[in-house]
């Protein structure tokens, strides 16, 4: 009798609060068994190092205390996502030794683009592993996993085949399409290419959906005009070239337009993929927010670089050695990387990546506005 009274009381409380069973289900955290990531150097955890020359010290010093395949002094954003979901750091798909793929894999490589570029990595650092290739790699990975899992006696390092449908699929790519466009096209030409670039990203999502993927977390692209690299070779920009934060206005405007089109395409994808939960994440807002308010957040000038030697027009990249005016100069790290937004002029510091994570994982910059731990819930 007492138990029945308790049940009735609980039911009445839910009715008073107006909480339905569906709403309770939506508020429950998702239990992602794995993450599969696609992207560029912003989320590469060792792919480009495995495929080509390894990233060297002082990269990785702040956290791993050695180079760890990441273009930062420590962790990148996908590492903080994994930590938040209580999953191990992702092994790069291209790693050949010491890999464990039980909880996912990372197909991102530094220099990757959405659209294939007609140039090699030795020219402008563009990775041959464009997004369509990353998807092909994923399809092969998934197919081989099924075969190996059925044959293997020891399965601890293999993904469980049933986990692919429950996994989180993350995308952080597009920045290099814009940077390649700035290098090779007029602004009008690049603007005309944006719909095709966005559609190719949508095609990647569709292909994973066809393979059973259901939860997608898609980052938009950041304020590329705020990368300090822009000012290494242009010390005297003309009037109107920069915005109020000192960033290249035209480049940021293009990033904003790319993001607008990407968001519109994500909304269409939700209608096309009826069982998918797709979250669009405004990483641009997080990055530009920190850059606009760096001093108040405890950072140095966001357009200053921690690692490397860049004086006048002499440039020694982070970790490299070059002869400058007859003397060998080393591109060393600053004393306190945690005070810098930019690590090497192109990539963010670990401290900045952690700040971004703190501002996107709670869902406050997402559409729909849900935290990542509820990203599997369709809204």
UniProtKB/TrEMBL annotation:
<protein>
    <recommendedName>
        <fullName>GDSL esterase/lipase At5g14450-like</fullName>
    </recommendedName>
</protein>
<keyword id="KW-0325">Glycoprotein</keyword>
<feature type="signal peptide">
    <location>
        <begin position="1"/>
        <end position="21"/>
    </location>
</feature>
<keyword id="KW-0732">Signal</keyword>
<dbReference type="Pfam" id="PF00657">
    <property type="entry name" value="Lipase_GDSL"/>
</dbReference>
<keyword id="KW-0378">Hydrolase</keyword>
<dbReference type="GO" id="GO:0016788">
    <property type="term" value="F:hydrolase activity, acting on ester bonds"/>
</dbReference>
<dbReference type="InterPro" id="IPR035669">
    <property type="entry name" value="SGNH_plant_lipase-like"/>
</dbReference>
<comment type="similarity">
    <text>Belongs to the 'GDSL' lipolytic enzyme family.</text>
</comment>
<dbReference type="InterPro" id="IPR001087">
    <property type="entry name" value="GDSL"/>
</dbReference>
<dbReference type="InterPro" id="IPR036514">
    <property type="entry name" value="SGNH_hydro_sf"/>
</dbReference>
């Amino acid at each position: 009798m007492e138990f029945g009274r308790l049940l009735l009381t609980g039911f009445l409380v839910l009715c008073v609060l107006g909480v339905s069973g569906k709403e309770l289900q939506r508020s429950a955290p998702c239990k992602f068994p794995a993450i599969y990531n696609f992207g560029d150097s912003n989320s590469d955890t060792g792919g480009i190092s495995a495929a080509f020359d390894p990233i060297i010290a002082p990269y990785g010093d702040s956290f791993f205390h050695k180079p760890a395949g990441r273009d930062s002094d420590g962790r990148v954003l996908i590492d903080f996502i994994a930590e938040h979901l209580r999953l191990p750091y992702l092994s790069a798909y291209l790693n050949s030794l010491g890999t464990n793929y039980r909880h996912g894999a990372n197909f991102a490589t530094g220099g990757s683009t959405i659209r294939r570029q007609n140039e090699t990595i030795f020219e402008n650092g563009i990775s041959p592993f464009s997004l369509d290739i990353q998807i092909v790699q994923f399809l092969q990975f998934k197919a081989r996993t099924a075969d190996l899992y059925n044959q293997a006696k020891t399965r601890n390092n293999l993904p469980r085949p049933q986990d692919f449908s429950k996994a989180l699929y993350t995308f952080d790519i597009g920045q290099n399409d814009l940077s390649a466009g700035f290098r090779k096209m007029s602004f009008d030409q690049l603007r005309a290419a944006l719909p095709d670039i966005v559609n190719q990203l949508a095609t990647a999502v569709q292909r994973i959906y066809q393979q059973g993927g259901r939860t997608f977390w898609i980052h938009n692209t950041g304020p590329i005009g705020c990368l300090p690299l822009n000012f290494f070779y242009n010390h005297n920009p003309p009037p109107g070239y920069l915005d109020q934060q000192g960033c290249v206005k035209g480049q940021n405007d293009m990033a904003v337009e790319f993001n607008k089109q990407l968001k519109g395409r994500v909304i269409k994808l939700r209608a096309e993929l009826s069982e998918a939960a797709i979250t669009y994440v405004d990483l641009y807002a997080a990055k530009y927010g920190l850059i606009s308010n760096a001093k108040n957040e405890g950072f140095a000038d966001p357009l200053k670089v921690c690692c490397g030697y860049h004086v006048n027009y002499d440039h020694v990249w982070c970790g490299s050695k070059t002869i400058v005016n007859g003397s060998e100069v080393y591109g060393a790290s600053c004393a306190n990387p945690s005070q810098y937004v930019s690590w090497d002029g192109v990539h963010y510091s670990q401290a900045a990546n952690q700040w971004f994570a703190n501002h996107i994982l709670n869902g406050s910059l997402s559409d729909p506005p849900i935290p990542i731990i509820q990203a599997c819930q369709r809204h």
